[in-house]
Write a structure and sequence with these properties.
Layout lengths: L2 H4 L7 H4 L10 H19 L12 E6 L7 H14 L4 E5 L12 H9 L5 E3 L3 H10 L4 E5 L11 E7 L36 E5 L6 H14 L5 E13 L2 E3 L8 E6 L4 H10 L3 E7 L20 E5 H7 L7 E11 L1 H9 L5 H14 L1
Parallel strand pairs: 1-4, 1-5, 2-3, 2-4, 5-6, 6-7, 9-10, 9-11, 11-12
Antiparallel strand pairs: 7-8, 7-12
Helix pairs in contact: 5-9
Length: 365
């Protein structure tokens, strides 16, 4: 087996897409074609020439502009809890990307079911069919995970997440000259001006950059999407879960750890661990949704070091028999929370909710 084949954590897309010059620049040709197709498709939806399906209940889309992690899963959890606090019955709808087999849940689905066991969650590549299934299950509002580009399903709210560490998909560089390109040359799914159709932008991991960088990024987002409010969020570590129970995140201060992750933005995970004062020996950052095999963890967590991972990875690592600790985080809005609350409060009552209310009134009338 070659050294490259033995190290799949070295083959993340940003390891070569972030470079300039050389053969990678040939990908600008298919990227230009991809851009033409996405612009044409967006224009057809904008003009109503491509059909959309409207369900009986409100739909809130949580999406992003890039391929990769922006913190959608923590935000979906936050949003679902906010809706439940308003007396709503939310359901979560996702595609189920990279599930092991048809009909099985992927890693995000398993994690969501563990955290919110009583919230209906449907994974279906056909979002319209999946949404109808949730309506039949009695939900009165649907949170559509990763839905910004999936416009076949009509939505009342489009909330778009922008990762402060990787606003355009690839890691930021000190001189600010990171590659900004559409797939497959970069990680953009659409051109940035398409942010204009969002109802709100959420800058995640906003505390990971300094005040000047954050101000410049917000100014750029305002130019791209005039009038669209910009909210700011942080990923707050809340506990470390281990084989013998849970502890406060401060238990990591001064501790030696090895990291393993298969998420969209491993830099955010590593930055959070460093921010808690841990000493990182090695970080094996596998591609997003990686299916772990026992050999992937060889050499990690030895010599008294903890093997530390994310909540999304933990549901897969358990199958490897590895003893790991899990850093659990929750999203917190630190700016613009009132905007989101107003948007949620203004959501219409769905037909399904009105039907239940009328039935309740009839039974007690």
């Amino acid at each position: 087996m070659s050294a490259q084949a033995a190290r799949p954590w070295k083959r993340r897309p940003e390891s070569f897409l972030g470079r300039r010059g050389g053969g990678v620049e040939l990908l600008r040709v298919p990227a230009a074609l991809f851009g033409m197709v996405t612009e044409m498709r967006a224009a057809l939806f904008d003009r109503g020439w491509l059909p959309t399906t409207r369900l009986e209940v409100p739909v809130i889309s949580v999406g992003n502009l890039t391929a990769g992690g922006t913190g959608k899963t923590p935000f979906v959890l936050y949003l679902t809890r906010e809706l439940r606090g308003r007396g709503r019955r939310p359901g979560i709808l996702s595609r189920g990307y990279r599930a092991a087999r048809a009909g099985e849940e992927n890693d995000e689905g398993r994690m969501l079911r563990l955290v919110l066991p009583d919230v209906p969650h449907v994974q279906d590549p056909d979002r319209v069919a999946g949404g109808r299934e949730l309506v039949r299950n009695g939900v009165d509002v649907i949170v559509l995970d990763d839905g910004f580009q999936h416009r076949r399903l009509w939505r009342q709210l489009d909330l778009v997440l922008i990762d402060a560490l990787r606003p355009w998909g690839l890691p930021r560089v000190p001189d600010g000259d990171e590659v900004r390109a559409l797939l497959p040359r970069g990680l953009l799914r659409e051109k940035p001006h398409r942010l204009r159709r969002a109802h709100a932008l959420v800058l995640t991991r906003s505390d990971s950059i300094d005040d000047g960088e954050r101000a410049r990024l917000c100014a750029e987002l305002e130019r791209l999407a005039p009038g669209v409010p910009i909210l700011q969020a942080v990923h707050r570590p809340v506990r470390v879960r281990g084989p013998r129970g849970s502890a406060h995140p401060t238990t990591l201060r001064g501790r030696e750890v090895d990291l393993v992750s298969g998420i969209g933005n491993p830099d955010g995970f590593e930055a959070a661990v460093r921010g808690l004062g841990a000493a990182i020996g090695e970080h094996r950052a596998f591609p997003d949704h990686h299916a772990y095999a026992p050999g992937d963890l060889e050499g990690l967590g030895e010599g008294g070091r903890w093997l530390l991972t994310t909540a999304k990875d933990a549901v897969k690592l358990d199958a490897c028999g590895a003893e790991s600790h899990v850093l659990e985080v929750e999203l917190e809005l630190v700016a613009g929370a009132a905007v989101l609350h107003a948007l949620l409060d203004a959501l219409p009552t769905g037909d399904a909710e009105r039907l239940r209310a009328n039935l309740h009134e009839g039974l007690h009338g």
